[in-house]
Design brief:
heterodimer; A: about 150 residues; mainly alpha; 5 helices; about 75% helix; about 0% strand; B: about 375 residues; mainly beta; four-stranded antiparallel β-sheet; 2 helices
Amino acid sequence: MFRTIAAFLISVLIAMSCVALQTSISNLLWLDSINMPITLSVIVSMLMSDLVGMSAAGAYPIIVVVFAGLLIAFIVAYLLSKWMNTGRRLLYALAGGTALFAIVALMPLAFYNLDLIAGARTLLGKLCLILGGAIAGYYFGAQLSGGHDNEEV
Amino acid sequence: MKKSNRAALLASLLFCCLFAHGSETNYQTEIIVEGLDNPWSLAFVSEREWLVAERSGSLRFITDGVLNPEPVAGVPEVLFAGQGGLAEVLLHPNFSENKLIYLSFAGADSEQKKLNRLVVVRGQLEGNSLVSVETIFGSEPLRKTAAHYGARIRFMADGTLLITSGDGFNYREQAQTLDNHFGKMIRINDDGSIPKDNPFLDTPGALPEIWSYGHRNPQGLVIASDGTIFENEHGPMGGDELNIVEPGKNYGWPAITYGVDYSGAIISPFTEQTGMEQPIKYWVPSIAPSGMLLYQGDMFPEWQGNLFISALVPGDVRRLQIVDNKVVSEEVLWNNFGRIRHITAAPDGSLILATDGKEGKLVRVSALQ
């Protein structure tokens, strides 16, 4: 159980890192496109600030939303795994991707069509975030598999 | 600590609080109108007759302090959603002769109902009706979001109209390009045509009605008698700004900002850049500046020339003293009414505050008798 909890928390961190990374990169690319002075130190500092800021300093807690989204998705994936023979890595990767899809698709509905995660304003951005969720899910599924296929969520 | 010492300390603290209690101006506040649905702006037709614009879409008369339950007929349908709705009501400088009033609002597109824009119309006021309504400005391109409209309008001394147009939240980067209306100040003639001396008339690809750019969500706008244009705008999380706006200039959003995104992400690590203007004041954390007034009334002579900015968060008014276009002092006033959406001066020189929300009120601040 401890290993499952640790794997889940790490998967949340992976997803959050992907969200922060995607947000930083999309902002940096735009700033560079208008000839703002982007240096290596600016890049490193922005990546670190976004990881910490988006996890702990926002007006709304994205990490809590990601935590809740992945938790629900992984529980559903666990229940589905009882009836399906799909590999756990793939199943949880799908679950993680679905969780991030739900987050980027549903959050605007609650806030006047606003994309509160700036990186999610474009289709490519949304796809990147969904991929981040899938990577987090894949990691979680891999940790559950690892020769212990019957371990529960 | 001994009891006597504690009492002395409390007494001196109390004395300090009383001594430090804000302005030396003596005033009284009274709630004069209640039951307004999201009041956004006010216009004074005469000392007795006021018009109030409610964001839910109604324009209503207040006559001798009594709110007319029957809204003005003929006001176009507005998109009342999110931050959108009916915003400004403004009288034409020659209103007494032409009876023209101007309205700004969020309006759904007639063909693509899920999309909307900032719209400015004008019409003639006849009794309790608005007639001959014509659209003189519609922002382009359409937006899907219901936020950050700006929507403040003011007449300049030459009779042209300035319109603040917000960045639509999702479209912030477009505030830096001149082929759209996101994050811009717009200048048009009173009939919607383009003035011949606008700054980007000869710039290839630029919309000719643009006056300045790089704004976020400007909701306060005043023009001083010497032509100085003061504008305030909401920043993101922190970084609300007070700017002096000049034609053709870039105010930086979102390439430079003193705020961060609501998600906690950095929008830009830069606060200044060559070719981008600095605010004369910014607020971190945010105060959510809404309306703004340059006081020129007679009731409070000591406040003449001061800027008053109504603020939504936590809900107060900021009185700023400006010397040589620099802010030299700031005083927090009237923080006991909740979120304040708008501030203006009545013809008699008293200040009128409009509180935000479904149970909006008008509060009059007048000299103590």
